Write a sequence for this structure.
């Protein structure tokens, strides 16, 4: 069996280590990161100056991927410290913030074109790339993983606070991100030709700048031979980011086999998928989720169990089943980043103290 490679992109928040407030220091942090790099830096600027993004190398061994996530989080923390800041794997800023959009030409275009939607997009996601053999296989995968993406969102939920208030959501980032015109779940495409026709039509409207603004929950990467799953919050704990990547690879492998065997994709509609995504963003792993097989509410632990059962064969063949079972058990017991943030606030009575805890948790 050929083991598919996996890469992860994480968007981190730059904060003041004392106050917990976001700091617009990405230019300085990037300069320090580049000065520390042996070769090409893994870090990039994001839309807002209060953020920093890194990307791992493609990895076939998930333990190596987990180690690299830890490495780049540590490198980000070191470079941020030299600039007078800290990094936190938070999908929204808990404390009030006035986001500062970067000076790049693309960023200025987004700010002018999308106004408050762009201004308020200080959100951190986790994007998982999994290699595919062709665009046809990739679209076959996209068509078949649609019902499972909301479960990944629930598992990664890490954005309960917005502008100093509890949003009542586990992933408020998913609600804010959904304001982009191309974001969210999509229809079944059926073929690579149909997928590319749709992307060309969307870009052709002039609403979007280019193919980089195809913000589907999962898409064909326009830069790499991968399926890119974009639905998740950045995870507070690095172990959860590795777990997420492992499950995404399992989903891709399972879907690719189903496509190769000629099995049809589940015809669940986009409207129902939006309901599943809303429920996942609202409750995370607390309460109920929509089961991908029935699209009816069931306890979150049962739905996560269904995901594990769905990808079990692929995980067993890649040697990841036992570690995934252990990691899922841990996640279900301690809860998501959203739960951790709320517990920290309840324990300390301070969002600033909660952010300080998250800074520590970010590095594992």
């Amino acid at each position: 069996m050929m083991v598919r490679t996996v890469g992860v992109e994480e968007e981190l928040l730059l904060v003041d280590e004392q106050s917990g407030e976001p700091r617009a220091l990405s230019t300085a942090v990037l300069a320090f990161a580049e000065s520390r790099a042996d070769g090409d830096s893994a870090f990039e600027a994001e839309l807002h100056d209060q953020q920093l993004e890194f990307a791992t190398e493609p990895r076939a061994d998930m333990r190596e991927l987990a180690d690299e996530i830890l490495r780049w989080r540590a490198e980000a923390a070191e470079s941020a410290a030299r600039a007078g800041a800290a990094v936190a794997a938070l999908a929204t800023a808990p404390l009030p913030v006035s986001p500062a959009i970067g000076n790049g030409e693309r960023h200025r275009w987004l700010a002018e074109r999308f106004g408050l939607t762009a201004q308020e997009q200080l959100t951190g996601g986790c994007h998982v790339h999994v290699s595919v053999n062709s665009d046809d296989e990739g679209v076959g995968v996209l068509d078949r993983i649609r019902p499972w993406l909301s479960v990944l969102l629930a598992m990664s939920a890490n954005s309960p606070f917005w502008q100093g208030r509890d949003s009542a959501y586990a992933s408020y980032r998913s609600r804010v991100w959904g304001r982009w015109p191309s974001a969210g779940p999509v229809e079944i495409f059926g073929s690579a030709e149909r997928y590319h026709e749709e992307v060309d039509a969307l870009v052709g409207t002039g609403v979007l700048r280019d193919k980089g603004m195809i913000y589907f929950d999962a898409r064909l990467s326009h830069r790499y031979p991968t399926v890119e799953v974009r639905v998740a919050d950045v995870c507070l704990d690095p172990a959860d980011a590795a777990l997420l990547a492992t499950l995404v690879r399992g989903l891709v492998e399972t879907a690719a086999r189903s496509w190769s065997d000629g099995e049809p994709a589940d015809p669940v509609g986009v409207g129902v998928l939006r309901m599943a995504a809303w429920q996942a963003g609202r409750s995370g792993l607390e309460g109920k989720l929509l089961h991908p097989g029935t699209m009816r509410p069931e306890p979150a632990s049962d739905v996560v169990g269904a995901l594990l059962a769905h990808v079990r064969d692929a995980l067993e063949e890649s040697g990841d089943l036992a570690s995934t079972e252990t990691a899922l058990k841990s996640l279900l017991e301690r809860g998501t980043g959203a739960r951790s943030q709320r517990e920290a606030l309840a324990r300390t009575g301070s969002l600033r103290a909660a952010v300080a805890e998250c800074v520590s948790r970010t590095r594992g």
